[in-house]
Structures are given as structure tokens and as C-alpha cells.
């Protein structure tokens, strides 16, 4: 019954993001943005688009292409040596994905990029059925936990994965992997091309803070990512929503054992986005212009504390859940503090309404 609770939670997270999409699509008639004299919000948004978001999606596209090449080499000759090379490429691509995880608005939310590329845990039983039958439709929303990085993690790196690529379902298995990567390539290209072709221009010129504006998207996504850190990435596997019952196999990047590395990359990217990559044109600088320097400093300090606590947890997280409970508990507390600062204080200071529903109701 508790296992169902965890899986339901992941579904709620997806639903919450969908509700966020719907809510943020409605713009208010009046711009109630707080005034920050002398601060160029248009320049800030241009910095986000040109120096952070578009390069991050470009990087993801490049890493998926490299992953495809490495995967094809493995599928042609499925040896342990080639699997080891593939694992390194997979890790790099997955870490790159964390750099766009915070950018799930606009073109990304329209195609549900995060849902299709990183809904975890994957549904291993259904994936096995897909492979055995050789029939599936990865465009259906109901298949989000049968594709993306978590599904590749299972199909390519589960303990018995190597032997299955030379077994009776090898041909279907190889095609499934190729179809997964093709789907990832297509979705990523769609998002990147839309940013370049049309969305960037709309993004940089809308300097309001009401629902549906880029600033509102950014603040909401900062808070949403922190909720995901508190929930699916750390809290849920640790047992925070299941009466202390742990679910090590529900961690992100479970089979390759990089759950903590992914969490650190996610939070480090979140800080990079918050500061605008220390360009003087980030959300932290906007807060200073709003006479909220102490809040900006508090958030930056808390980022460093939380990242430090996460770094103290050794990978794989599935093992650390048992052997490093003190470190995980410490990281969880600091993540909660950072979540509150962003979701409550930063949102209030910037005049942004949090429009998504969190994943655990607290």
C-alpha cells in the first residue's frame, strides 16, 4: 500500500505541473510588478534566454547525439566493455538534462518535456511487456514512465541488462532503446527550435510579473524544482512521505547509481539560474534592485549550505539511505529552508503568485 503511495506521488507531481501550465497561461489585465528603478528586466530576460536557457538545451541536444552514437556502438556489440563506455556517456547526458530541468516552461511545457524525459521511477514491468510484444506508442501521455532517461537507465543498466541484449528478445530490445533515444532527440529539438524561432522574442520582451510572464515562470519553476528535490529526489525515497519506509529503487538514476550527483547538478544549476550566472542580470540582482539585498544574500547562502549538505551524501543514494541517514536528514532540512525562502519570500518580493500545487501538501 505504501508503494502505491510513492507511485501516486509521482503522478501527482506530473499533474501539479500540468495545473501549473494551465494556471500560468492566464494573464492578468493589470501589471502589478514591483518597481525596481534602474534595473533592466529586459536585459535580465535576454541574459537568461541567450546565455543560459538556449545554451543548456543546445548542450542537451549535443549530449543526446553523443549518447545515440555510444548506444549504437553498444547495440552492435553488446559487451561489458562497451556497456561501461555507454554508462559514462549516459551519465554525462543525464547530468546535462538537469541543466534544463529548471527551464520547463514555454516550449518545454507544451510538449511535456520533463514528463517524457524524466518521470521516475520507470515502470519496469510495462517496459518489459512493450519489448516482448514489440508494440507501443511513446507519444501517449500514459507512457511517460516507459521512456526517457529513467527507462534507458533500466533497459541498459539493470543487473541483467547485458544478457538480455543477446537473448530471445534482443532485436525488440535494441529497437526499443533506439526508439527511446529517437523520441528524446525529437522532443529536445522541438523545444530548442521553438526557443530560437519564436519563443525567445516573446520571452525577452515580457517584463511583467503576473501569471504567464517569464518572471513568474522562472520563480514558479525555481520553487517547483525545490519541491521535487524535497519530494521525489530525496524525501520520498528516504521515507518522508511513507512513515519512514524507504524506497531505494525509486531514486533518480538508480541503476547507474548517480542519484546524488543528479541532485547536486540540479541544485547547482538552480543557483546558477538564480544569479543569472553571476552576470549582474539575474533574479538575485533583481531582488537587490527591489531593496531586498538581505533576502538575496540569504538565498545565496542557503544554496551553498544545501549544496554542501548534498555533496556530503555518497552515491549511490540507494545505499546511503541506510548508511548515511544523518547526512540525508541534514540535507533534507536545508532543502526545506531553501524551498521556503524561494516559494514564500522570493515570490512575495517579486510579486509572483505560486500557481502550481506542491507534491505533498505541506
TrEMBL record:
The record, for InterPro entries, names:
Imelysin-like (IPR018976), Imelysin-like_IPPA (IPR034984), Imelysin_sf (IPR038352)
Q: Which UniProt keywords apply?
A: Signal
Give the location in the cell: Cell envelope
Keyword S-adenosyl-L-methionine appears in the UniProt entry: no
Q: What is this protein called?
A: Imelysin family protein
Domain named Imelysin-like: which ranges?
A: 53-328
On the tree of life, the source organism's domain of life is Bacteria
Q: Tell me the Pfam families matching this sequence.
A: Peptidase_M75
- Asked if the Swiss-Prot or TrEMBL record annotates the protein with the keyword Signal, the reply is yes
Broad class of the protein's primary localization: other
